[in-house]
Each structure stands twice: as C-alpha cells, then as structure tokens.
C-alpha cells in the first residue's frame, strides 16, 4: 500500500505515473471508508483526489503555499502531509479537524471554514513574498460554489492588481452545497460547454491568463497542466472541471445529499438513519413559512446557498418564485432582503449564526438604518450548535443586539417562536431577528398571544423575591431548573423572567426588582462579553441589587464538549444555585416561612 | 430660470431639447455655487448633471424606482424632485442631507452612504415588484469606483438570476475617490477605448445585455439611450462614460481633490484654507509609518479606496510597493492583511470606523481566529467624527472588542498612540486594532515605555478613593476634568484610570477598587450598549461597588451637534460630578481632611 508510506509530499514526488494512480485509488478508498463511518464532507473530497495528488506531485509544499477555500476539501491534502493515519486508522479519525489547521501541520497555512476567502489570503501571502523578495508559487484552490461570494471577486481583482505569481485553481464541479445561482454560473457553463473557448470569459475579462481542463479527474492531465504554469511570473487561472463525489456512484448521482453528512452505507448509499423523523424547530419553521407563502404571494424566503437550513429539494421546487437562493453571498442576501422589504414584500432571510456575521454592515446600514421590516432567522445560535472554531454560533448576541432599530427576539418554545415569526412577517415597522431555538422542540400547547409590538416587555413567569433569574431563549429552561432547585431544596421562591427581547431592556421591570431582590442573575446561550446580561448589569450598576452574568468565555472554542464548556463556565444548576445562595440574604426564618 | 420652476420630475418632462440643456446649465451653476460655499461631493455631482436630467426626462419616478449607489451623487436628483431650494437659496442649504433620504422625498428609496449596495437593493426592489405582479422600471446608478466592492458583484450575479427588468447604469468616470485599483478597471478601460466593443466584456460575461455610451455628458444621447431600454423585460447594463467634475475645469483637472471637500474659490479652484497646517494624529501616523517603511521593506500599508485617510498623492507614489490600495473592498483589505501577516509581512490596514464594519467576519474569521499580527488603525471612531447617520464612528467598540484574540487599544495622547502602533507593528503574537484618537494632537513630551504585550494592564494615573473614573481613549481628558473638579470643588481625590486596553479587563485593578471605592464610573466615546463600560459593570456586578457607564444611546444619530449629544447623554463635567456626588459617601470631615 502506497498511502501508508506517504509521510510527506516528498514521497508523492517519487512515485511513477502508474503508482500515482494507485495512490489515487487508495486515497479515495480510505476517504470513503472514513466518511462512511465517521461522516464529513464526502462529495467535495471525492472530487479532488486526483487534483490534490497532482498538486503535491508538481508543487513543493510548504515552500509553495497552498490555500484551500473553505478547506472542507482538504482531506486528501491532509493524507499526503503526514496525517494519513487520521484517515486509515479508526482510532485516529478524530486526530484532525475537518478544515485546514496550522496547529496540525506546516502545510496548512490558515484555519478556514467560511467561503470565498482563499483568493484574498493568497493575495496577501503573495504580496508578502514579493516584499521579502522571495520566490515560490502561491496556489489557491476555490470551488465554483465559493465564486458567488463577493470577497472572491475582490480577491480576483487584486491578484491582477499585484500582478505577480498566483495560481488560482477553480475547482468546477458545477455544484455549490446545492445547485448554483447567479450570472457567473452561466459563464462557467458556457466555458465548460466550449472547452474553455466561449466568448466573454469572466476570468479573462478581469485580466487572467486562463487555462481550461475538461478531465479534472485525470491525474496525468492535471500534472501536465500544473507543470505548464508552475513558476509563472504572473497570475494564472486554471479552470478545472471535476466531478463532485467522483468514484462513488451514489455521491455522483445525488450531489446535494453528498456534500456532507454523517455515516452512510457504502453498499446502498443511504445515510444511516437516526430513527424516525420528529418535528423540530426547523420543520415547524418550514411548515409556517410554506403556509404563509401559499396564502400571500408577497412572502418570500431568501437563503444564501445553505438551503438545507429549512427546505428539501422538493419543497424548494414547490415554492417557486417565493424561494430565492442567492448563492453563497450573505451580504447580498441581507441587502436584497432590505430591498424586498422596502418595496412591500415580506422577506425572511434564513441563515446560520456563524455565516450571518458576514453581513454586519448590511444588517446595520441597509436594513436597520432604513427601518425596514425584514426578518432574519438566526439558526444554530447556541453553545449546542456547530462546535468547530470556525463555525461557532455564540457571537450573534454581541453582534446583533447593539445595532440600533433592530429588534432581536429569543423565544423559549415553539408557540412563542411561531408567534414571534408570525408577528415579524406581518408587521411593517421594525427590522427583526429571531434566535431560532436549538434542541428538542418544546411545546406548551398554549398559543402565545403576546403583542410583540410592545418592545422590550419581558414576561415574569414566576414572581418571587431575593433572587431574580433571567433565562434568555434556550437557557430559559436552565433558569427554570435553577428556580425549582432553589424552591424545593432551599425554600427560596425566586423571580423567574423570560426576557423575550434581547436588544433592549424592560427598564420598568428591572427598576422594580430593586425593592425586594438582592440579586439578579442572567443566563445566556452564547459568549458573555458584549451579551444581553452585560446590558442588564450596566443598567442596574448604580442600583441596590447585585448582578451575576453567565455566558461562555470570549474564545474561539474548538471541537468542545458543550456540557463540559457550560460547566466550566459555571453554568450547571448546582453551581448557579450555590452562587445565588452566597449572594442572597437567607435567614432560617425566611426559609421556614416559605416552606 | 427653469430650475426654479421644477417642483417635480413632471416639469422636466415638459421641456424641449433645447430647454433641457438650459436646465442642465442652470443645475450645474447652482450646484457649483452651493458646493463652493457649503462644501460637499462636488466632482461626482458635476459629472452626472446630464445623466440625472435625462433619467427624470425618460423615466417616471417615483413609479419607476431610482437607486443611487452611495448616493453622494444625488444632488441633481434632489434638485429635480421638489428640493431645488436647498441648492438655490443659501438659507436652505442645510435642508437636505448629502445622501438620498426617504424622509425628504418619496423619490428617495433608501438612506445610503456606504458603497456597492445599490445593485442588491435594486434586485430586492425588482423581485418585490415581480412578486406583486407590478410593472415599472428599477434603475440603479453605480459609479465605477463602487464596482470594486464584492457586494456589487453579488448584486450583478443575482440581477441576472432574477432575470426581469432592472436597468443598471454604470457611471464610469474612470475614478474612484482616488485612482481605481483592480482587474475590473482594465476591462472598463478596454471597453472605453473600444467604444464598448472589446473582447471578454465583464458585464456580458455575467449575462447582461450591454450598451456603451461614450458621450455621457450629452443629454440628448443619454435620452436616446434611456428611451431605447425603458421597459425592457430583462436586465440591461448601460456603461456610460462621464467626466468627473464636468463643467468646472479645476475639478476636471484634479479629480481626487474634487471628489468632495469644503468651500472653495470658483475663480482659482483653491479650497479655502483653514489656516496653516499643524501636526495631527494623521500626520503623526503618516510620519511613523513612512519612517518604518523606509527601514523595513516588510512594513506595508493597506487601504480600501480612502487614501486621504493617511497619505497625499505624492507620499503614496513615494511609498511604491509598500502602499497597497485594494479599491473600495474592505473585506479584501482585511483578509489580504491576514495573508500578509501570515507570510511575515507587517501590514497595517488604515480604515474609517464606519467602513471597517463591512469586515466583521474577515476580522473575526481571517485575522483573529488565526492569531495573525496585523494592525487595524481605526480612524474617525468618535462622537466627534462624521455625523451623518450613515457614517457614524460610534459602533466600533461593541463590534470589535468582543471578538476573541483581538487586542483593541485606545490611546489618549500622541506618545501612547505611537508606542502602541510601534509595538503592534513589531510584535508577532496578536491581531491588534488601535482606536486612533480624534481631535487636536495631545503631546505629553514624555515617551511612553509601556510594555503592551502585558495584556489588559491599565494605568492608574491618580490614586484616590471613593470614586474611580475610567476614561477610555478620547474621553480620558473628560475623566481628568471630572477628577479635577471633584478635587478642587468638592475635596474628593478620585482614582483616575486610563485603561488603554478596551478588549479585556484589568481584573486585579478592578478587584482592588472594591476596598476603598463606592463607585466606578466609565466614560467612552461611542455607543453605551455593548461597550467597554458594560464589561466593567458586569465584572463588578456582584462586588460591593456601584458602577455608572457613560456612552451615547444606541441610535443612528443624524447630523447631530456633538457637544449637545454628549450633554444629552449626561456627559458634561458638571453632570458627571453631580451624579458621582450623589453616589459616594462624603462626610464633611472627609472633605475637610482633604482640603
């Protein structure tokens, strides 16, 4: 077996043409074995086995610099740069992250996980090389799906501006996570259909020397192409046609499902079921939106290349013109949403928390400054969301809640969530974001009739004394458990508050707490710094009541265990109760009186 | 005079061809008269007089929807839509803002001030029209300078994707604020040089029907072109060559200086001097950076199309390859900076606070997550900065200071600032942002020898008791004045603190305050919510000390008077002193003892 002998790219370079093909086959087999058992980005990596082997054969990493866009297609690169065991030995599957990671290897330049950054990073790396008067190749690999992001275009422009060696590989498998959207994809199709000869070549229009390769899964042709441009003294763009999921027929046939996923059967291509489908916050959202759209042609859902966030392929088809996928282009998604709202549509932008942060300026300047009634549904905003350091959902409260005009809502159960969503869609005064709850669907069975136009009105779900506990969104449940423990074990009936609004304070309520409370505790499912709790602490800073804010530390937590992280942050029922007891004045008489 | 009779676009439509030319001349004369006296975006508006008259002649606003990118070129549009008096009568010059503004007129759809948003907004407006089955033209006007922004590219892509009527006018005056940078500009030049016939047309590559007009300051030709595409059932792009500053020779000759500015002489084209040049934080920055660059080829300054932030045209030329203008592309500026830092260069990105917010994800994901030692110089971050609602510099502390790894520094004088900048450039461990001070240069005459690698170490500049006042950056001076007033008038020697770091707390110092202080006051030059002070309030929430945070309200304050806004926010020496006195325990004996 060649693969096990590859400890560095050096060993790749020593193989003959025939041996390289054997290596390709072994690498693909190991990849399939691992992703079928362990999950991961299957399709993108299957498509670039040949390309990655050829890159390491021709170029000289780490002297030559490789930068993979998003880097979810870097598995083969990892196999060939000293990390093969993480793909051949199940005991070591967890040794590597799913993205490039400088802590793993000098062959990985950056921690990456968001799209469309590779060209700008490469432009910086190349410019630094030039300033230092050094001499090597800078190679960026970007998928066609990532080309819809404006940052990729800015990168292309500036690579031409700098004008020295940078080799851009466009890995064109004619697929984003789902199908592609936007004018650029018509150009890529024209170029594929004409073997690179079509008129009005997008890349040439920006000034690139352009080469097309139809057989992007042919290692010999790839090597020939790379050798022909290696050490160029100017920017070169290689448009390479690959097949997403290549070498595994189920992945080739179903490219959307085989973008990424959990374990699957190599025999049938079926993902291993995790039991029967149950209603979730996602399905509840989809149900409400589909119903709304059926009854009102002005309701429209906008999405930025992550359609699985809400709808299946069939649902999207059925929604027709009321579902808009703008490609991976979060800035456009937000600004288009603002335009839709201005002209009387009722737009809902569904986005993962980690990708929403790409649109800070558009949320502030285009939506919020203009007071436009668009709705942002923020998914996976939780310590319990994605847990890779490049995909965290814990920064959205500091980011969104301090933007003027924007109403940020944090529901605690299904009824509340759907009532907020319905209100947001039908009102015309406020930009609204909703922090979609994480975890199992919680149903109260009682419709929520709150008037959400009464901004910042919190709900007191239990009136008590001494301690008031504010449980934000997902962590209302934790607040409830703390209150119960205080009551049953310590005879303290605490005040329990569901704030619902996290972009402003219920000042009247907070003022009233001073009278008969020693302590206010806030619990939120995200980072502590800049969060909701700190606005409470500030407001109560000169009042006669203490405040304790709970949240996780301001860090890029990586592949963490959520319960462990929460416990480290002091967020267990027991620890919170103990800290409350240490900060309230509880005489035995008080306790007896309550009991 | 025709101009005075134009109360709405209706009156424009009634003019003959010859009368239109008279209107053009009158409008240009009024424009010149106003901007020469009052200041404003002179060059951009001089260039679009004919285009704007022709737009209102051919199209039917507000039924047809006009969206101006950045909207600093909307003065003529304002003249023709009921706001002529704001340009013809000096007493009414202040009636209108410098950007489109829906509160002024139904002909203005959006409040805009950042670039590259118009196409995405137009895409949303057009899509809403389609959902409602309505029928009219959506017309977006975007300058060539704004085309470097990735959002513009995302907009172009998605206009093609939607596929219905949208008329994109590219107003190509071959100039951004300064010269253009990036591959797209070579394409625009090729198209201009070939009367629109060049191969590899960027716009056609994305799928646009494309028309070129060389004589973009000829009202008759403009009308002909607009009439030919009006009511098209598909996207159309009009590439129109105009002359920035047209009709005022000094502006035509010096297009960078005549992008925008204060009053100038119509006779000589000289800006009215505001006295002899004195050293400023800008000139001090430029001096240090020029010196650094001369001595180290790895030092490089990155800028996103706003070069006047630091350097003159001559200085930029002299800096050669160590000065990089990426065009108006803030995301790229940040991500390229990350790439530069990774490969051993010493990059400094100089940016205005209001535009920095376009790069939240790039700061977080590309620079901070990767621990890269790039430096961000944040200019105009102050209540005393730009005061238009679309250009505020008061949101950067909430935005930046809660991003992990990033060290955000707030100097209070020249020596501190330059020491921080020098440290940041030469260190290799941290991403660093520095809040460049606003206002007059303050010099202590004593070199700052602080070791800024000791993160979060505050400086206690006066040790006292009862009240501790933390003055952040620009507002350290205010804290000092409050301390002096407390001392001289009320016999209280307060503790005075210069935190220097605003992305983390000096916990040891804060802990020590509990012993002999009743109150901690924070003063910061920005929005209260999410700011530095709130992290202090949170940290001290369960300590035996009260906290009062000062900052301005979370609002898009518009064309405000800074001293008035600060006073409304309670930030005058007198008001702060009174509030401190009400919250500390001051016996007469205490006061006498100190006096």
Automatic annotation (TrEMBL), chains A, B:
One of its GO terms (molecular function) is 1-deoxy-D-xylulose-5-phosphate synthase activity. Keywords: Isoprene biosynthesis, Magnesium, Metal-binding, Thiamine biosynthesis, Thiamine pyrophosphate, Transferase. Its cofactor is Mg(2+). It holds the Pfam family DXP_synthase_N. Pathway: Metabolic intermediate biosynthesis; 1-deoxy-D-xylulose 5-phosphate biosynthesis; 1-deoxy-D-xylulose 5-phosphate from D-glyceraldehyde 3-phosphate and pyruvate: step 1/1. Its EC number is 2.2.1.7. Residues 279-443 form the Transketolase-like pyrimidine-binding domain. InterPro entries: Dxylulose-5-P_synthase (IPR005477), THDP-binding (IPR029061), Transketo_C/PFOR_II (IPR009014), Transketolase-like_Pyr-bd (IPR005475), Transketolase_C (IPR033248). Signal peptide: none annotated. It is an enzyme of class 2 (transferase). Belongs to the transketolase family. DXPS subfamily. PANTHER family: 1-D-DEOXYXYLULOSE 5-PHOSPHATE SYNTHASE-RELATED (PTHR43322), 1-DEOXY-D-XYLULOSE-5-PHOSPHATE SYNTHASE (PTHR43322:SF1). Homodimer. This is 1-deoxy-D-xylulose-5-phosphate synthase. It comes from Candidatus Enterococcus moelleringii.
């Amino acid at each position: 077996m060649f693969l096990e002998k590859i400890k560095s790219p050096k060993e790749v370079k020593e193989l003959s043409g025939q041996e390289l093909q054997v290596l390709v086959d072994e690498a693909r087999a190991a990849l399939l074995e691992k992703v079928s058992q362990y999950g991961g980005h299957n399709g993108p990596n299957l498509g670039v086995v040949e390309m990655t082997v050829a890159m390491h054969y021709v170029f000289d990493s780490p002297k030559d610099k490789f930068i993979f866009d998003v880097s979810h297609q870097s598995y083969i690169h990892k196999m060939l740069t000293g990390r093969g065991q993480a793909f051949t030995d199940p005991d070591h599957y967890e040794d590597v992250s799913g993205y490039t990671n400088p802590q793993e290897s000098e062959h990985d330049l950056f921690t990456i996980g968001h799209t469309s950054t590779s060209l700008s990073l490469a432009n910086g790396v190349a410019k630094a090389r030039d300033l230092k008067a050094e001499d090597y190749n800078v190679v960026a690999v970007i998928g066609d799906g990532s080309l819809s992001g404006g940052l990729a275009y800015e990168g292309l422009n500036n690579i031409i501006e700098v004008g020295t060696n940078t080799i851009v590989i466009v890995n064109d498998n004619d697929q984003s996570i789902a199908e592609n959207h936007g004018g650029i994809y018509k150009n890529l199709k024209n170029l594929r259909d004409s073997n690179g000869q079509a008129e009005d070549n997008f890349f040439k229009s920006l000034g690139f020397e352009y080469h097309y390769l139809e057989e992007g899964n042919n290692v010999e042709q790839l090597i020939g192409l790379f050798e022909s441009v290696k050490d160029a003294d100017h920017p070169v763009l290689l448009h390479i046609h690959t097949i997403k999921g290549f070498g595994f027929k189920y992945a080739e046939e179903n490219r959307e499902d085989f973008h990424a996923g959990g374990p699957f059967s190599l025999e049938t291509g079926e993902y291993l079921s995790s039991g029967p489908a149950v209603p979730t916050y996602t399905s509840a959202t989809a149900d409400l939106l589909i119903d709304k759209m059926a009854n009102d042609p002005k309701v429209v859902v906008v999405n930025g290349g992550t359609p699985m966030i809400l709808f299946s392929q069939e649902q999207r088809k059925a929604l027709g013109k009321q579902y808009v996928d703008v490609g991976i282009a979060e800035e456009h998604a937000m600004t288009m949403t603002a335009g839709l709202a201005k002209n009387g549509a009722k737009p809902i932008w569904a986005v993962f928390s980690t990708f929403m942060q790409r649109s800070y300026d558009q949320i502030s300047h285009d939506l919020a400054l203009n007071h436009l009634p668009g709705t942002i549904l923020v998914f996976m905003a939780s310590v319990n969301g994605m847990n890779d350091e490049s995909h965290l959902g814990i920064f959205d409260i500091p980011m969104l809640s301090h933007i003027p005009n924007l109403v940020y809502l944090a529901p605690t159960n299904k009824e509340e969530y759907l009532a907020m969503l319905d209100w947001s869609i039908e009102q015309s005064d406020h930009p609204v974001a909703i922090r979609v709850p994480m975890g199992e669907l919680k149903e109260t069975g009682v419709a929520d009739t709150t008037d959400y136009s009464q901004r910042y009105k919190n709900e007191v779900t239990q009136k008590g004394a001494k301690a008031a506990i504010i449980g934000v969104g997902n962590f209302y449940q934790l607040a409830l458990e703390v209150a119960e423990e205080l009551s049953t074990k310590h005879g303290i009936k605490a005040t329990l508050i569901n704030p619902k609004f996290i972009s402003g304070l219920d000042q009247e309520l907070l003022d009233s707490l001073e009278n008969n409370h020693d302590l206010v505790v806030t619990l939120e499912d995200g980072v502590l710094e800049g969060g909701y709790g700190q606005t409470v602490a500030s407001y109560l800073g000169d009042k006669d009541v203490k405040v304790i804010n709970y949240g996780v530390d301001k860090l890029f937590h990586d592949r963490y265990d959520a319960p462990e992280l929460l416990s480290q942050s002091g967020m267990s029922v027991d620890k919170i109760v103990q800290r409350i007891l240490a900060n309230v004045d509880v005489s035995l008489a008080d306790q007896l009186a309550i009991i």
